[in-house]
């Protein structure tokens, strides 16, 4: 099969290769998916560069997310799934081979049915972004009728959070940094879009919430935004942080101010989220897809041969929206 891989960590243009590799075969509890689209995430960059950990396997086929069609199963009783359209999550977590290949073998539960009217592009945009956004939003209960602030509302996780929060019946504000980002956040359904470089974000939030503040904050940069978050947060509200720029990043917390707020500071790392919570997320994501309410913004799509270019574009921050690899 045609696949991308790396045998050592380093810069994309130095370590990523595309070649013919053996086609994998599913074992018990597994299915094989013929890939149509692979989704690229920041965690894939961090794995390739050694940000998260050293090489866990001698050779890695990257990427956790993707979408395709099941073409083989490891258990005969699962034969009815052959031909099923699916989206995939955590394909390469704890395994050597991810979705940047013509075929991938994953645990059967990690291949989730994709409704027939939902494109493979949308399917490959789910995975890490949608599961992370769901955990940030729903870990502390239902958000119907609640107020949500998404910091970085045009990012991939941020857009997922806006889409899922609106599907769930929340009022949503989103911060952005330029006109292009504002357009993306509005298209996702944000009720209020604020330029964090030029607008009085806390003042606008308090005006629109009648000084009640927001109940949930989905946070892309808690180090930079904590003071602002506390200024926007309702009493007893939750700040969910899901990203770190450096492995050594630390956070100083204003304890008294946080205590007065009675706030919860939650950290979300999708790989350590309990499986029960992921099952809940998958159920909600499926419901959102079923009514056509999940429309992520795709910023770049290239073919497999140009995977290094896709990695470089995401790393450089020159792409706004999901980066996809057409298999």
UniProtKB/TrEMBL annotation:
Record SMART domains: PKS_ER (SM00829)
InterPro entries, per database record: ADH-like_C (IPR013149), ADH-like_N (IPR013154), ER (IPR020843), GroES-like_sf (IPR011032), NAD(P)-bd_dom_sf (IPR036291), Zinc-ADH_QOR/CCCR (IPR051603)
SUPFAM superfamilies on file: GroES-like, NAD(P)-binding Rossmann-fold domains
A GO molecular-function annotation: oxidoreductase activity
CDD domains, sorted: zeta_crystallin
Iron listed as a keyword: no
Keyword NADP listed: yes
One Pfam family of this chain: ADH_N
Keyword field: NADP
PANTHER family recorded: QUINONE OXIDOREDUCTASE
Annotated protein name in UniProt: NADPH:quinone reductase
